[in-house]
Write a structure and sequence with these properties.
By secondary structure, the protein is α+β, with helices and mostly antiparallel strands. The chain folds into 3 domains: 100 residues, Rossmann fold (3-Layer(aba) Sandwich); 70 residues, 2-Layer Sandwich (Dna Ligase, domain 1), CATH 3.30.1490.20; 238 residues, 2-Layer Sandwich (D-amino Acid Aminotransferase, Chain A, domain 1), CATH 3.30.470.20. It is built from 15 helices and 20 strands. β6 and β7 form a beta hairpin. The protein starts with a strand and ends with a helix.
Amino acid sequence: MFQKILIANRGEIALRIHRACHDMGISTVAVHSTADADAMHVRLADESVCIGPPSSRDSYLNMPAILSAAEITGADAIHPGVGFLSENARFAEVVAEHGITFIGPSPEHMRIMGDKVTAKQTVAGLNLPVVRGSDGAVSGEDEALAVAKEIGYPVLIKASSGGGGKGMKVAHSADQLGEALQLAQSEARANFGDDSVYIERYLEKPRHIEIQLFGDNFGNAVHLGERDCSIQRRHQKLLEEGPSPVLPQDHRAAIGKLAAETVRALGYRGAGTMEFLYENGEFFFMEMNTRLQVEHSVTEEITGIDLVREQIRVAAGEKLSFTQDDVRISGHAIECRINAENSVTFMPSPGIVKSFHAPGGPGVRIDSGLYGGYRIPSNYDSLIAKLIVHGADRTECIARLRRALEEFVVDGVDTTLPLHRRILDEPAFITGEYDIHWLEQLLASDP
């Protein structure tokens, strides 16, 4: 087992990894930018190293600085967390070249799944269902028009690289396709340095269902149920729950088994998540994230399995500590992403947290590095806390979540807490009858 792990990330996920390490008796090294010198994960880590100025490019994306920090502190493994370098195959290779273990899948699998076109082609060859679309990246408007005519409008144009909803545009007719294609390519180039895009059929009212997966070096592969991530704004998830309130048990079992078989066939190692669109009883593969997900906490609450601990064990060469038969889904869990944003305009709201009160009580978990007096920097993602609530069933879970949201206090900056309170009062959420467009349609109806 590792003696010391460097955490190449920040915020709540860095703190989450630190806690798992300490539970396992492993020392931690926090790396941080100058803007994060007072962050909670830096304060709690056994050692810390400043790796650069506030800009992510010069700090959390600075491979030489991170590797130097690992070498001078004697870390024998690096956990990349989520975002930043967590799905960068070259970073995983360089880490290994320095004799340090990268806690994650192989660079090969990161490359396969990091390109959405290659990923779709790969899983389609292993019998996973995919949305109809182009066989690969489209070369220009003429090819795009031909593909769209064949599969039918509306169509979705998507960046081959990256994620987070960037480089995605919808065209409802041939007249809209040219402009949508140019916008998607421009956005993809600006965000990922790659302007290649592909086209697929745009589903009208799908759910966003993702399957948590795990593999090890011994040919074992399991799934840990699903999470419903359909409550989104501009393709950014705001609330996730598990199990999905709409999946029939036979559909749940079938897609979980198929996803696990795909991971086994690939020889995949570590944690991963396959994301699907689900409409009219059918699943369609979208992409696979070769890392831990922000919403992994939902799965932890309904399975009782520490996913970060399992990541570390598998990276250290150990077998999965459980089999598929050991996985039991118990109760219901919901996660709210609390962002430092205005809940109406969604403008970021960095600044000093004057006071912070986390809710508590049965079934309530907070993953956050906030504290009174902490300055939220303007340089990074606006996620400042995750509120995760577990109950014996969905009704109890919602009741506990409503109570927890009423107790939650973050004073000094705007947050999305009011939006989450509003969502819980909406009949469509209570009944579970929502899709990936529901929240945006709700917000668009506001005067």
